[in-house]
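Subject: mismatched residue count in predicted assembly?

I count 1309 residues in my input, but I want to confirm that the predicted structure covers every chain. Input:
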Amino acid sequence: MLKIKEISKSYMQRGVVLNKLNLEIRRGSSVAITGPSGSGKTTLLNIIGLLTKADEGKVFFHDQEISHYSADDAAEYRNKKIGFIFQDHLLLSYLTVYENIMLPLMADKHAGKRSSEASDYALTLMEKTGISNLKNKFPAEISGGEAQRATLVRALINKPEIILADEPTGSLDAVNAEMLTQILVDLNKELGTTLVVVTHSEKLAKRMQKKMRIEKGILIETE
Amino acid sequence: MRTGIIKSIYRSIIYYRKALFFQFMITAFLAAIISASMLTGSSVRATLRSNTEKKLNNSGMMISSGLRFFDPNLSEKLQQKVGLKCTSLLEMKGFSSNFSSGVSAQYVQLFAVNPDFFSFNSEAVLQQLLPGQVLINKKLADHLNVQKGDDILIRFKTLSNIPLNAPFAPEKDPSESLVLTVGEIASDNPYDYFSLGISQLKPFTIFLNLADLSDSFEGSLKANRLLIQKEDALTEKAVASALQEVLTLEDFGLHLRRIEAQNQLEISSDRIFLDESTIEEIQNAVPEFQPILTYLANSLSINGKSTPYSFVAAISKELYKQAPEKQEVEINNWLAQDLSAKIGDTLLLHYYVSDLQNRLSNDSAILVVNKIVPIEKQWADASLMPEFPGISGTESCSNWDAGVAIVFKKIRDKDEAYWSHYQGTPKAFINYLTGAKIWGSNFGPATALRMSSSKSLSEIEENIKGKLNPAKLGFSVQNAYQNGINAANNSVDFSSLFLSLSFFIIASSVLLLILLLSTFFESRKRQLRTLFALGFKNGLITKMLLAETSIIAFLASGLGVFAGVPVNALIITALNSVWEGAVQTNTLVAYFDWQMIAIAFLSTLIISVLVLYFKTRNFLKNLRTQNASQIPKRSSKSIQWLFPLSIGLTLFPLLLVLITDASSTMYFFVSGGLLFISFLLFYRWMIQFKATSASQLVGKKYAWLYYAFYPSKALSTIVFIASGLFIILVTGANRKSFDSDHLLNKSGTGGYSYWCETTTPIAENMNSEEFKFDLGLENESQQISFLQALKQNGDDASCLNLNQIAAPSLLGIDSEILAESESFSFASLLSSVTLGNPWKVLQIPAKENCIYGIADQTVLQWGMKMKVGDTLTMLAESGEALHIILAAGLEPSVFQGSVLIGRANFSRFFPSLEGVTVFLAQVEADQKEVFLEKMQKRFRNYGLSMEQTQDRLSAFYEVTNTYLTVFMSLGGLGMLLGIFGLGLIMLRNIESRKNEYAFLMASGFTIKRIRNRVYQEYALILFAGILAGSVPAFLATFPSLITSNQIPWLLLLAIVAVIAVAGLLIIRFATKRFINIELIGMIRKD
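Triage response: the counts match. Full output below for your records.
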């Protein structure tokens, strides 16, 4: 469903980060991308999410080239097809957990029509991830693991086809990291959502179906 | 270690140069504003000092004889004594007109000078004036539109040695006029500026020959001012001492003569009457001199028989051993025969007496005849009668011009025969003490001083010479130059004024500096945490941060103060042009002053270092104590009832306006203030309300949730914009102007319609039926009334004069009229005054030369730098000190510029000032046209100027209103600067919300959409502030807005528009510049 062809990206200070990189991800699969710091993992994720433009190469989604999308089309693609999870949970401190989860609906101008449905879906996901009791809590009142689970639910609220997770367990302790990893794996299986995880964690990477490593700007499949 | 820290500070400055550059610019801007304000004050004072030098030219000391005159040759004697150039002149006020066109000028200063005046001044523009020629200054020439060779008419109060209102002074025209030719026009030279007064305004000036006025003094020349060349070492005391040594009796207008028949020496005065201080001084020098008082009795009657118009002499026992006792009278045998009188008869004495206000009235005394004396020896002394100009030397009684009503038909042939034979020989003699008691007046209790002596005149003159204190005889010595310099140095403090007017700019600069530091420190949070982690002590980190920023503050203050020089030049240019209303002159010059530069530098440095210190300290304290978890709290319930309560309170004063007659101005202001609070509460409530609805719907309104969580982020900006705008608009719109209230008695007009001044005094009682009949307004008599005031000229202490005034004009008014009508309002009152109506305090008679006075509060505070309860000491006509206790301060009134005292007290201390030159007229609106026409006709030769009281107040208000314009303009500029602060606040908020924006991008928002949302958020905040500032300001000033024609609508609208446009541009710039794709990089870098 997602193809990346001959992608290159370089930065002024860092030089070439991605060098004619190719990648193909199948629907429902889970992929872990590892590599040393500064190797271009997050850059690759941002190119997939159309947050960063590649210097060269193309990105295809369902065989349709999306790398030339306009800002509006790219935004709609992110809203409808992608769900982001970051290392820092990025929950807005002035919104409750529930409000944070519902936030992506704002990006859709027609979201009002399906807000009731989305609300039910949010409650279901919260139930599944064990945070239903935190609905009216503010981010400052919950733990890091709970916050990251809320982030996961927020990433799923628009029923995306791909979840792009950037170091999702990076700021969690071992217990919470394990819990989140399990939830990600379960959801991948249960909902069929494609999972692309950038991580340093070998533990998390091992739980993905495919494990790849960026070295010198290219991807090497390790398992 | 220390070297390392210094290096670290240096590196830090280099690294953060961009952020520190902004700190530099703001601090430099602050320094420029402070130094420009300081330099403006310095420039105004330097200009005033320069004006003093220009207008006084070569003059240093000035000797003034006040209202009296002296022989101009005194200057030669004094010149020899002090070894400096001296010149005598006669200073008067008058009016002038173009003889051909009739164009006239009021308030012209006339200087009658001797030829030596032109060599006295350092710049010899003219050697002398030819007889009949005048030198006029350019301002007057332009006003009259005259050229060299044109004729002009000048009119001035009649000059006379004898005060025109003194008893038995001959009737004279109240004014004199001369037609003279313009010989020279003074332009930009000492004569163009010449003035002995203290004011920054260039007057209308005419110089004429002293000799051209000789007719006024029966052929002699007289002067009233003497100027001494400027010499720093010369003191007032030295001049007074030199003056005392050279002054002779003649210089004082006193004449010593021998009365051979009586073997007596006599001193008489040009003024007829000798006042108490003159008598005392002469007696101090020669104790043998005794006063005598010879007076004209209207009739002397015994048992129904009456003798008209006879002179009676009051003599003392010290001089005449046989002088009668206090209740006795000695009559000569002519009178005894005429009245069939015998010893023991009661004699009824009728006479005119001059009351406290120098008005003549009939009075009488009863005395017992104790002796009948022959008309011989001392009883045949015709010289006892003083030289009454209208009586002495006349051939017949019917030719008398006694200055009082004489019923000539009462004068019989035998009276004429007595006059023909004995002249003014007194027919009766009374005790001096009795005479002084019944006939003594403000002009003095004696007509001569006599002593029995065989000494020669020169011996007596020698005895007296150098012993008479000039100060006790009406002479005053003033250091005119130093007084002018002092007045300039203590003039209105434009430094403080402009610092106050620049309040918003300064406050905005400080605010901007604080915000900038917050942003700067925020960006270094991680670095500072690292320093803490490495074990740096709080004190050391504080010092390091403070050192970095203080170095910048030092450099910025040092350079910024010099940027104030061109800013000062701009302000001075504005004061000379668009803001001229504040200073009433266009001659201000921008000066450079190192002292002011140093003060401005230190002030800026202190302010900025204090800001840096407290900001650094607070930031580091917060950094150390910051708790990662914030307790979430969205809103307070109390707002729900506070807002409606506030709205209710806003409406309450407006309801009071509707249901009561109370003055609405204050109620509207209170209401406006409450509406301002209501607006803020409304915004607070709205955020909460919207947040509640947003949390239910989620979706588009999530921004409300942010502000519900952080209400201060929206409200602080709103409060800043709203309060600044509210203050600027309220101040700017609340201008002093006129409405129907200004015709009320309580207002600054006192209910009077016209303020009138004449060059020539008006002697009549203008409220009398006779006067109104004479004026041709007998039918309108009830609708027209006057308040007349005697005026002792002084310096203008109104807000139109920038100098500090020590000797303001005095107005003697009939305060009873004002007390009855309860005219004018008082701003302050001496607590010890408990007479009911404050005006009554002016009626309290003098005690030991202390009287009460009232002046405009503005005059007290700004013009004289005094307050109620202070004592103003001035010189009375006689030269004695007159202490005026300031009993009350008036709300702004038409009297601004003068100090008011009671009329009786005025006449006592300034007896020579006869007739009123200032009066207020109360006229019904429909009578104004007729009134003006009749007044102009009646007083065409009096140099009458009439202006509507509201026009006079307008001139004073213009000063205040110009200051308000300056405040608004600078305030607007400050607000504009504050808008840049809004940009910084935005930057900080964007910085703190960058993750949020980045997440929104990741969630499917386009950058454009996020920018639009942020733009709308801040635009809403901006307009909320503008609305909360301007609508309550409109309500608060509503009464002014609907009645005043002075509202600078354009400026007000421009300020609002500029703030709105500048705000939108800043928001647009900030959103575009700081919300971009790079934000995504902030989420996490590889």
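Chain A has seven helices and ten strands. Marking this ticket as 'not a bug'.
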